[in-house]
Specification:
This protein has about 190 residues and is of the alpha/beta class. The chain contains six helices and seven strands, in the order αβαβαβαβαβαββ. Strands 3-2-1-4-5-7-6 form a seven-stranded mixed beta sheet, sandwiched between helices. The chain binds S-adenosylmethionine.
């Protein structure tokens, strides 16, 4: 078996924890690849709430989902830091994914930021169900990326062990700063 890259492993982790019928979140919709993956995981009775700040991303993802006949998704043109405004108060969340950094092929100045990523995570944590998982695919090679990673690592390492399992999955001998994973699971 070849060890999976971060993107593949993010899906492996979600596939192992998210259940059919779950309410899940794609915090960085982009072109909608993860939205579509989550949609298939939760099935027709589940729901995917997706966020992106770029009109082009929401449009591109909407087209992808429509072309594939997907109807269990709700895409929001807003930052994920506003998640609590869109999450019903008593809604439990089975899982979430953040694909950090910038959208390939789009404006490289529109990047995720530590403060807003943390605000989103803090908004989601109280809603996570037991064994529910937040997966962060962390890119840090671009300007601003390392600042975001530092904030995320400081936050994630300080989460109480009694309440959360926190995982880092990273190839440590590769060149060009490949993405890695931080995953937070509610115990
Ligand atoms: C690496 S891309 C996501 C790729 C996506 N998962 C896909 O399948 O194509 C990161 C995305 O995060 C978005 N983004 C940046 N800041 C954001 C924020 N505060 N809230 C939501 N999305 C944000 C960007 O517009 C960009 O589309």
């Amino acid at each position: 078996m070849k060890l999976a890259n971060a993107l593949t492993y993010s899906h492996t982790l979600l596939a192992a924890t998210v259940e059919r019928g779950d309410y899940v979140i794609d915090a960085t919709v982009g072109n909608g690849h993860d939205t579509e993956f989550l949609s298939q995981l939760v099935g027709p009775k589940g729901h995917v709430l997706g966020f992106d700040v770029q009109v082009a991303a929401i449009n591109s993802a909407t087209t992808r989902l429509k072309d594939d006949g997907i109807t269990n998704t709700e895409l929001i043109l807003a930052g994920h830091e506003n998640v609590t405004q869109y999450l019903p108060a008593n809604q439990t969340v089975g899982g979430a994914i953040f694909n950090l950094g910038y959208l390939p092929g789009a404006d490289k100045d529109v990047i995720t930021q530590g403060e807003t990523t943390l605000a989103a995570i803090n908004g989601m944590l109280p809603h996570l169900k037991k064994n529910g998982l937040i997966v962060l695919v962390v890119y840090y090679g671009h300007p601003g990326g390392q600042d975001e990673v530092n904030q995320l690592l400081n936050f994630a390492q300080a989460l109480p062990q009694k309440a959360y399992h926190v995982l880092q999955y990273q190839f440590i001998n590769q060149v060009n700063q490949p993405p890695y994973i931080i995953a937070i699971q509610k115990r």
